[in-house]
Amino acid sequence: MAKSVKKKPTKRTRAKPGKERKPKKVLAKRRMTRARAAPEAAAEPARPSAPLALGPGSAVLDRLFAVVMERRAADPAISHSARLLSRGITKVAQKFGEESVECLIEAVAGNHDAVIAESADVLYHLIVLWAASGVHPEQVWLELKRREGVSGIAEKASRARALPIAFGLETTKIP
Fold first, then answer.
1. How far apart, in whole angstroms, are the C-alpha atoms of residue 8 and residue 67?
2. Which of 78, 101, 106, 128 fits 114 for a cystine, CB–CB 3.0-4.6 Å?
3. Kind and range of the H or E element at 48?
4. Which element (helix H / strand E) includes 35?
């Protein structure tokens, strides 16, 4: 979780005649506009992306999954993973949702470093959710590989057609 930084109180002064203060919203908007423009100017050249689940990133997640599975049997008083898993799938899912929302908030606020930190929290809690649900990373990697090279629009459309048929409905719209 990202920690908020307390700002030091500032000395307020009256605006000089003829120089009115700009509202904080206007100033904040200007800062965000400048912040968005700056990274584009100094952008690094695009690197080709690695194939899904074959790079070191998936290995880190695989190791984290192994640690979470190991800690399931640990004392909930000393292991965060054990404590979460002992509370059941509902609590694990709630915690995953909270961390996801925190990540979204930081992304919308434009806090790059906080998005990285919150993303790590989201991935950890997703892995705990997998452990609580009986899902293994290899299953997710295989699904990602299956989707690789398939248009997201086409893949989603195929799922939208299959779902109503599975429920015996005569429509292509998801109920």
1. 41
2. 106
3. none
4. helix 24-41
Identify whether 21 is part of a domain: no
C-alpha to C-alpha distances, 137 to 116, 119, 132, 140, nearest whole angstrom = 21, 17, 13, 5
**pLDDT per residue over 108-117, tens digit each?**
999 999 999 9
Q: Is residue 99 part of a domain?
A: yes
The CATH number linked to 77 is 1.10.287.1080
Residue 17 placed within a domain: no
3-state secondary structure of 125: helix
What is the rounded distance in angstroms from the CA atom of residue 18 to the CA atom of residue 21?
10
* Euclidean distance between CA atoms 83 and 81, whole angstroms: 5
Contact predicate 102/1, CB 8 Å: yes
Question: How many angstroms separate the CA atoms of 58 and 52, rounded?
Answer: 8
If you write DSSP's letter for every residue of 84-110 in order, what string do you get? Answer: HHHT-HHHHHHHHHHHHHHHHHHHHHT
CA distance 145 to 139: 10
Name the token pair of 125.
């809690």
pTM across the whole model: 0.59
Q: By the 8 A CB rule, do 65 and 127 touch?
A: yes
Q: Does some domain include residue 29?
A: no
What's the total number of domains in the chain?
1
CA 44, CA 27: separation in Å to the nearest integer? 28
Q: Which domain holds residue 121?
A: 56-135
